[in-house]
């Protein structure tokens, strides 16, 4: 059982709370594809991993982190286990942004990863407030106050969910879970080829980036009009009998065919559980559209 695992970094738009419903609707899939990996909340909540599992993210730092855990989770944990420090946060942010060759290698070689980049990235993003960490378009700050009161990610004071109370134990468990997962880094359509979609059944979680004007959070990887493109792909493939598709977004964001089922659920409240009015309002707007081929099962109360 792996359902207690979670990512060791905060991630806006994670679907951990609604993952049980997604897996009820997907059922036992021979192939599972997540073109927008992020924190892998849904994959990590899968209670019975089986078959092929394929994930992708355009953000090279995200893809590199998951590959690095597969390669040497103990080394990544050792490098990431470091105190919160503002001066180091700024210096490491600048160093990570300057790794030009790294971005080329992670996309050119499907087996390549950089352990130090992975460790410093997860250490930094777990204390960075707001967006912009490792964003090439974000100006290098001269000052950047980190989280000082409540810890997040690898800086959490209490490790929950039954994990070992050490970063090493946490990372080892994640590395073991991800051992057979295929991690790609690039455009989302690359992992939705005819070969990837051939198995019966195949579950596909489409969780494209929200538009930045909706929530005030920008992404390290350019999102553009990707949500519109993803919706069009979902509609085009929604009636294929071997595909079970879940499309995520906000209420009113996607106009789907009548046979698709729209399900409302409540998130925790936005990026880092932000308590302002915008975060709370957006938490009430979360929706998932399930294709007609998804299983119909009893739904948990996602608003409780």
Overview of the molecule:
There is one protein chain. This protein has 304 residues and is α/β, with parallel strands linked by helices. The protein has two domains: 19-58 and 186-290, Rossmann fold (3-Layer(aba) Sandwich); 63-177. It has ten helices and seven strands. It has a seven-stranded mixed sheet, sandwiched between helices. Helix 3 (60-80) packs across helix 6 (115-125), helix 3 (60-80) crosses helix 7 (167-177) and helix 4 packs across helix 6. The protein is globular and about 55 Å long.
Q: How would the blueprint of this fold be written?
A:
Layout: H1 19-26, E1 31-34, H2 41-44, E2 52-56, H3 60-80, H4 86-97, H5 100-108, H6 115-125, H7 167-177, E3 182-184, E4 202-206, H8 212-215, H9 226-237, E5 243-250, E6 261-264, H10 277-283, E7 286-290
Parallel strand pairs: 1-2, 1-4, 2-3, 4-5
Antiparallel strand pairs: 5-7, 6-7
